[in-house]
Structure formats: structure tokens, C-alpha cells
Amino acid sequence: MNEQKLWDLVEKQKVCMMVTKEPNGAMRGRPMHAITERDAQEIWFYTRMDDGKSDMLEQDGDVCLSFSNEDSSEFVSLSGRASLSQDKAKIDEYWSTFVEAWFPEGKDNDVVGMIRVAVDKGEYWDGESSSIIASVKMLIAAEQDHMPDLGENKKVAINRH
Length: 161
Prior knowledge:
Helix content: 25-40%
Number of helices: 5
Mean pLDDT: 84
Strand content: 35-45%
């Protein structure tokens, strides 16, 4: 059940921050448009093969994906292993006018690639209320010297098929 809820929250959001590790050990985050494949427990992203992100992922494929929807107090963090792909069938499967804007060279150019993240664990926070209600709960909790109940928080191990 927790795994299902995790994926439900991920599928509601289209953009996440992908955090990678640079060769010097520094962490680097960047916004990415996520393509969710729940059944495969994977998240896919289009990428340019000629940018530094691709080089970083070849050296260290461990990534963290951070999704947030502040309006509904829903947050998800996924960890997994990223790999690069230039599979033409996969590139064609999700190609759109939106994606084409980032690749003026066209989808058959060698610069077009995808990142596949095989998700192995995640955590979600589902506040089940608006940010206004959450603020009120925090004020009440502070007055009563206890932590606020802002909703459900679960760590989820992904059962890879």
C-alpha cells in the first residue's frame, strides 16, 4: 500500500530536482521533467548527451529525485541508480513538441539521449492539507510544546521485479 501511494504522488507531479554527485564530491541539483513508468519502477528523463550531467552519471549513477507540491503539502524523495540510453524506440515513445524544443537538432541526432533511473527506495510526506492549515497546526503545536501533526510520512523500499 505504501509503495502504491508513493507512486500515486510521483505521478501527480511532472517536474523534480535530480541530484547528482560531481567528480569532486559536490552535490548538484537541477530541474528535470519526469516520465514515470510505475510498473517498471523507473523514472525516465530526456537529456543531452553532450552536457556535463551525462559525464557525471557515467562516473557515479547514484541519484536522488525530489518532487514537491507545496500547495497540497505533498513531497516525495526517490533514490536509485541512473544509466544513460540512446534507445531509439524509447526516445520515440515519449517524444513531443515540448521535448523537441530542447533538441532543435531533431530526435535522430546523436545528442539526444535519455536517463533511466531504476528506483530502489523512496520516502513521502503527505500533508493532506493546504499550507494555510499546516501553518495553523504549527502555531498550535508551538503553543502546546509538541510537534505538529502535518500528515503521513513513510519510508518505502521498492520491490524490484
